[in-house]
Amino acid sequence: MSRQNARSAPTGWIAAAYRRLASGRIALAAGNLVILFLIVFNVTGTAPPAGAPTPLALQLAFTKSGFRDVLDRWGPDAVASYRDWLLLDYFFPLVYAIFLSSAVATLSTRRGEAPDAVKRALFVAPLLAVPFDYLENTLHLVLLSHTGHLAAGLILLASVAAAVKWGLIACTGAGIAYGFVRRLSDSQRVA
């Protein structure tokens, strides 16, 4: 096998997962589950009080004072609601990872063409976001169970995990948007 063919035909679990998830049906089903989760999250009353910081502000607080400020502005009821909601959030990372990875694989698959390194990286990025999301959720559960004794190091670690998670998701989202536009432009050229 030539060096070029070795690079263009990836093997292993990434290639197997890529082929398996390169299906519009899987992307659509997982996308519907993402929408269902978002509806459940909104219906269960996890939104902070009007004018209070969003959960994203808590995730990216980075400091003890920033974290405490969000909690104080939310109030005890919203903090308890968010803590309870975090238990459901342990299922969501797998769902969004499958959706995003499947969307990348579906939009970037060309007949007879193996995915290049960029496509494989965009495919793997949401899967890599999952453990960071779990770390963030776990640390938030610990921190929100002991709001009287917040540990600055745990807050920083949770925020770094959240920032990495959001960065990986944003890169994948940009790749999906590019793939969608490219797919549209390719279909218009054919028509």
Distance N to C terminus: 37 Å
The major sheet is characterized as: none
Number of structural units classed as domains: 1
Beta fraction: under 5%
Helix segment tally: 9
Please give the radius of gyration in angstroms. Answer: 20 Å
What's the count of strands? 0
Mean of pLDDT: 90
Order of helices and strands: HHHHHHHHH
Model regions low in confidence, pLDDT < 50 over at least 5 residues: 1-7
Principal-axis shape: elongated
Helix-residue proportion? over 70%
Specify the structural class: mainly alpha
Q: How would you characterize this protein structure?
A:
The chain is mainly α. It is built from 9 helices and no strands. Helix 7 runs antiparallel to helix 8 (117-145) and helix 8 packs antiparallel against helix 9. The longest helix has 39 residues, at 152-190. It is elongated and about 60 Å long. It starts with a helix and ends with a helix. Residues 1-7 have low confidence and may be disordered.
